[in-house]
Every structure is written in structure tokens, then in C-alpha cells.
TrEMBL record:
This is YdeI/OmpD-associated family protein. Transmembrane segments: none annotated. Residues 18-101 form the YdhG-like domain. It comes from Sphingomonas agrestis.
């Protein structure tokens, strides 16, 4: 299914980009007639069976095309720009139509098979360094200390960062005192905003 917003998107791009975007669009629909078009993040997207298949974009001096499952469909040019084909400045920077269409069909087949794109796992943030003012205040209040130590790392980090970001020593001390009071009551740092 074609989206008229993509016609508008292509028409508004530089002369060099229009034939590239039109070629990419035609190849996607030839290889995967069920692909549906949409605009996401201000660029043309192709969805297949309700899942993202690929996207394309045009910039001042180049265009880009990328499969959603970019790790499974390497082209050797990824990393040079957004997408798998690096900086696309002309149709010569793309594979021939048959090769490209095979890649589109492979991407659709991965969606049919239920394969989800592999994404690198985010490394957990390190444990927050407890500011001296908070450590000292917690040492004098066993209940607040127990609550603090019982919180998950992210909630402890919120208290630590809030106190550590204060510029003046008086402000850090005041925040540490408030933190101990709230912790004694079992409250998280942003308890006022919880519903």
C-alpha cells in the first residue's frame, strides 16, 4: 500500500535523491508487494505484516536505506552512514535490482519466521557513588539506611545524583536530610510524582 506522504517526501528532496528514493521504493514493492508505507521519525518506512521492514531517507548530499534487522542483512557498507548501504549518492552506489530484491525478500522472510532483530544488550550502569553527606546521614539512621539499601540500584542512584549535583555544601546537607526523612518513610526520590 502506497502512502501519498512518501510522494510528498520524495518530491521535496534534492534532484540527485529523487531517482534513488523512487528506485528503492519500486524495488521494495516489487520484491514485497504486501509492504505498507508509512512515515515514522520523519522518514519513509516500509512495514510488512505489521512489523518494520526497512526505511529510507535523503539528506543534503546523500540518501540512505536500511533494513530494520540490520545485523542479519549485512552489505559491507554499514557504518558509513545510516542504513546498510553507506552514503548513497547515485544509483551506482546500490546493488543491481535482482540482488536488492533478494535482500528485501530475505528481510520479509525473517519477519514471517518470527525472527526479532538482535540488538546489543545495554550494559548495566555502575552502582552510584554515595555522596559523603548522604553516607553520613544514613549512618545515623538505621531505618533510612535499611530502606536505601533495599532499593534497587536505579532508585539509589536517583538519591545519590540528586544530592551530588547540588553545588553548595549547604544544599547537599539539606538534600541529605530530606532524603533520610523520606527514606525513613519508605519513599523513593520522586515519590511526589507517583500516582
Amino acid at each position: 500500500m502506497r502512502d501519498p506522504r512518501i510522494d510528498t517526501y520524495i518530491a521535496g528532496k534534492a534532484d540527485f535523491a529523487r531517482p534513488i528514493l523512487e528506485w528503492l521504493r519500486e524495488r521494495v514493492h516489487t520484491a514485497c508487494p504486501e509492504a505498507e508505507e508509512a512515515i515514522k521519525w520523519s522518514m519513509p518506512f516500509f512495514d510488512y505484516n505489521g512489523k518494520p521492514l526497512a526505511n529510507m531517507a535523503a539528506f543534503k548530499a546523500h540518501a540512505a536505506f536500511g533494513f530494520w534487522d540490520r545485523e542479519a542483512l549485512p552489505t559491507g557498507k554499514q557504518g558509513a552512514a545510516m542504513g546498510q548501504y553507506g552514503r548513497i549518492e547515485s544509483l551506482d552506489d546500490l546493488p543491481d535490482a535482482a540482488t536488492f530484491e533478494v535482500q528485501v525478500r530475505d528481510a520479509a522472510a525473517r519477519i514471517d519466521a518470527g525472527v526479532k532483530p538482535a540488538r546489543a544488550a545495554k550494559a548495566p550502569k555502575p552502582e552510584a557513588e554515595v555522596p559523603a553527606e548522604l553516607a553520613e546521614a544514613l549512618a545515623g539512621d538505621a531505618k533510612a539506611k535499611a530502606t536505601f539499601e533495599g532499593f534497587p540500584p536505579g532508585q539509589r542512584r536517583e538519591y545519590c545524583e540528586w544530592i551530588a549535583e547540588a553545588k553548595r555544601p549547604e544544599t547537599r546537607l539539606k538534600r541529605a536530610a530530606d532524603a533520610v526523612e523520606w527514606l525513613r518513610e519508605g519513599k523513593r526520590r520522586n515519590w511526589r510524582y507517583e500516582s
